[in-house]
Design brief:
14 strands, alpha/beta, 329 residues, eight-stranded mixed β-sheet, Dihydrodipicolinate Reductase, domain 2, 9 helices, Rossmann fold, 2 domains
């Protein structure tokens, strides 16, 4: 590869802009192209981020010979087709979470990436935040003993002025589970090293048929438990607490851009670890992609494809308990 790895972005929305901002602080990255379904949208994005090559469709973006790796920043419902588009064009692909709408779609894109020997990764950006990297080291070192329980919660109030907004649109894979819940399920997977053996879950489905709030309990083979709750109907402080036989770890701010954790052990003073991060946080997942590409790796060992698949399978199992199936499935 050349000194800089050349990126193209599919999509021009909020997350695409955030990713472009993250890329801008990485000297080894170059954003060379953007693709949109509308020429004006691509051109406007190009002007904002000084992108030299602006394409009026996604096919042109993935076919651009200057692009080495594609970031998929489209709504949930289009992830599978956009990943396949990039892979069929011979590009490495980083796809925004949720990776796909369901596990069947995830299996399809993973199979193609492996057949074509192309890099593919889910953009679970929180895994690469420096504090979360440190958290994995602490858990591996057993600082709170044997892991026993995890509590993960997130909640916010989504705007209801536009019922077609993707949060409320089942045709777009709307609902809190795929949007915010994917973070919680992925974090539980990271902490316990795999999917749960048992799931008990309940949800409130709103007027449009999507899950507006829910809760789930995961049970693991060795008796560990994870309690997850998520909502876009209420405002409560988000929570991440990891509890072990000898103490607990609390993360602040939890889940999104965390910079501080507290280790509380029995009969000891609390230990506080603060690790700030550079940029907006999305730069770390981009750096991981480029690290893998330079090393000739086809997937990341921090967010491996097999784990992405099991997370999608867990999300499917949760929805099945609610009787929620998207019209696009």
């Amino acid at each position: 590869m050349k000194d800089k790895i050349r990126w193209g972005i599919i999509g021009t929305g909020k997350i695409a802009k955030a990713f472009a901002t993250g890329l801008s602080i990485l000297p080894e990255a170059e954003l060379v192209a953007v693709g949109s379904r509308m020429a004006e949208s691509a051109n406007r994005f190009g002007r904002q981020f000084a992108v030299p090559r602006c394409h009026a469709n996604y096919e042109a973006l993935v076919s651009d010979p200057e692009v080495e790796v594609v970031y998929v920043a489209t709504p949930h419902a289009f992830h599978q087709e956009n990943i396949l588009l990039g892979l069929e064009a011979g590009k490495a692909v980083l796809c925004e979470k949720p990776f796909t709408i369901n596990a069947g779609q995830a299996e399809t894109v993973i199979r193609l990436a492996r057949q074509k020997k192309l890099f593919l990764m889910e953009a679970m950006w929180t895994r690469y935040i420096p504090l979360v990297v440190r958290l994995r080291e602490l858990l591996a070192a057993g600082v709170i003993g044997d892991l026993q329980m995890v509590e993960i919660g997130l909640a916010f109030v989504a705007p209801r002025a536009d019922s077609s907004y993707y949060f409320f649109n089942p045709h777009m894979g709307g609902g809190i589970l795929l949007d915010g819940g994917a973070y919680a399920v992925s974090l539980a997977s990271m902490v316990f090293g795999g999917p749960p053996a048992r799931i008990a879950s309940m949800a409130h489905l709103g007027e449009t048929g999507v899950d507006e709030q829910s809760a789930a309990i995961f049970g693991y083979e060795q008796g560990q438990l994870a309690v997850l709750y998520m909502s876009f109907r209420t405002r409560i402080p988000p929570a991440v607490r990891i509890m072990g036989s000898e103490g607990r770890i609390t993360i602040q701010p939890p889940l999104f851009n965390p910079t501080r954790l507290t280790i509380a052990r029995f009969d000891q003073a609390d230990e506080v670890i603060e690790i700030p991060f550079e940029g907006n946080g999305l730069n770390y997942e981009a750096a991981e992609v480029m690290r893998c590409l330079r090393a000739g790796r086809l997937e990341s060992d921090i967010m491996p494809l097999d784990e992405t698949l099991t997370v999608m399978q867990t999300l499917d199992q949760i929805r099945a308990q609610w009787g929620l199936k998207y019209p696009i499935e």
